[in-house]
Write a structure and sequence with these properties.
Elements lengths: L2 H11 L4 E7 L2 E7 L8 H17 L5 E7 L1 H6 L1
Keywords: Cell cycle, Cell division
Family: Belongs to the BolA/IbaG family.
Protein name: Cell division protein BolA
Length: 78
C-alpha cells in the first residue's frame, strides 16, 4: 500500500476534507483538515481515521500512522 492508495481511501470517506498522506514502507503521516472533526477530541478524531484504515493496519499493509487532524478554523489558526 502506498500513500496515494491511503489518500484515495480517506478521500472516499471524508469527502468534505482536505487529505494529505506522506511516507512509505508502511509508515505514513496523515494530515486531514475538515469540519468533520468539529467538537471531537483528539481520540475521537483518530478513531475516525483508524475506522477507515483498520483493515489495512491489521493486515500489516500499514505499520505506523502519525496523524494531524484539525478543523478548517484550527488549520487557519496554526
Amino acid at each position: 500500500m502506498d500513500a496515494s492508495q491511503i489518500t484515495s481511501l480517506l478521500d472516499a470517506e471524508l469527502t468534505e476534507c482536505q487529505v494529505t498522506v506522506d511516507g512509505g514502507d508502511g509508515k505514513y503521516l496523515v494530515t486531514v483538515i475538515g469540519d468533520v472533526f468539529e467538537g471531537l477530541n483528539a481520540v475521537k478524531r483518530q478513531q475516525t481515521i483508524y475506522k477507515i484504515l483498520n483493515e489495512h493496519i491489521t493486515s500489516g499493509a500499514i505499520h505506523a500512522v502519525t496523524m494531524s487532524l484539525m478543523t478548517a478554523n484550527e488549520s487557519q489558526a496554526s
